[in-house]
TrEMBL record:
A divalent metal cation binds at residues 25-26, 126. Its cofactor is Mn(2+); Mg(2+). This is Ribonuclease. It is found in: Cytoplasm. InterPro entries: RNase_HII (IPR022898), RNase_HII/HIII (IPR001352), RNase_HII/HIII_dom (IPR024567), RNaseH-like_sf (IPR012337), RNaseH_sf (IPR036397). Its main location: cytoplasm. Gene3D superfamilies: Ribonuclease H-like superfamily/Ribonuclease H. Manganese or magnesium. Binds 1 divalent metal ion per monomer in the absence of substrate. May bind a second metal ion after substrate binding. Keywords: Cytoplasm, Endonuclease, Hydrolase, Manganese, Metal-binding, Nuclease. Its EC number is 3.1.26.4. Coiled coil: none annotated. CDD domains: RNase_HII_bacteria_HII_like (cd07182). The keyword RNA-binding does not apply.
Length: 219
């Protein structure tokens, strides 16, 4: 299988038209337990001239063992980074797409809290649907791009930063909820996870509105 190395072609072109790009990517959308997380990586024209860090890829294409070091390099490479969260309870209360928007809005706000003027930024969002604009309290310019996590280096950075943060959180939850093996499956619908739900029921960290035992395995 050919692995595509992300580049800065789109970012450099867009930064001729705007001062900042804030790139977003989500992790945890399909999990049965735990939060959804949205990573944010900010880049300006100066940053876009820097070389892409070694090993940076969409988080799904980086081995679990290597992800922390790649995420560390990615965070040092961009001008600012953040992770926004929406809890399992919020997923249940408002639905997954609104929860993604809430997590994304929180990530963008965290970037703003670090000194960025987000009203002047272009939000580069992986996917084909803008789930951010209607949630964030101030107007944003959002550009969804299909496969941006694969092709755009700044979005790959957001992806791996969010993945490492969420995986670490699920490993912490495993310490008090070890029956579900979240240190291994990270809350997704593995056979061991579904068996544990049958045996032990749902924890407070499960998405109760859809965490049934017999849903299809997602990986």
């Amino acid at each position: 299988m050919t692995v595509i190395t992300p580049k800065l072609t789109l970012e450099r072109r867009l930064l001729r038209e705007c001062e900042l790009i804030i790139s977003l990517d989500e992790v945890g959308r399909g999990a049965l337990a735990g939060p959804v997380a949205v990573g944010a990586a900010m880049m300006d024209a100066t940053g876009a001239r820097r070389r892409v860090p070694e090993g940076l890829r969409d988080s799904k294409l980086v081995t679990e063992r290597r992800r922390p070091e790649v995420a560390e390099r990615a965070a040092a490479w961009v001008q600012a980074s953040a992770v926004g969260w929406a809890t399992a309870q919020e997923v249940d209360d408002i639905g997954i797409m609104s929860a993604l928007g809430l997590a994304a809005s929180r990530a963008v706000q965290s970037i703003a809290d670090q000194g960025a003027t987000v009203e002047d930024a272009l939000i580069l969002l992986d996917g084909n649907h803008d789930y951010v604009s209607r949630i964030h309290p101030v107007p944003l310019r959002v550009r969804p791009v299909i496969k941006a996590d694969r092709d755009c280096a700044s979005v790959s950075a957001a992806s791996v930063i969010a993945k490492v943060a969420r995986d670490g959180y699920m490993a912490e939850l495993h310490e008090t909820h070890s029956a579900y093996q979240w240190n291994r499956n990270k809350g997704y619908a593995s056979p061991e996870h579904r068996d544990a739900i049958r045996s032990h029921g749902l924890s407070p960290f499960h998405r109760a509105s859809w965490a049934i035992a017999d849903v299809p395995t997602l990986f």
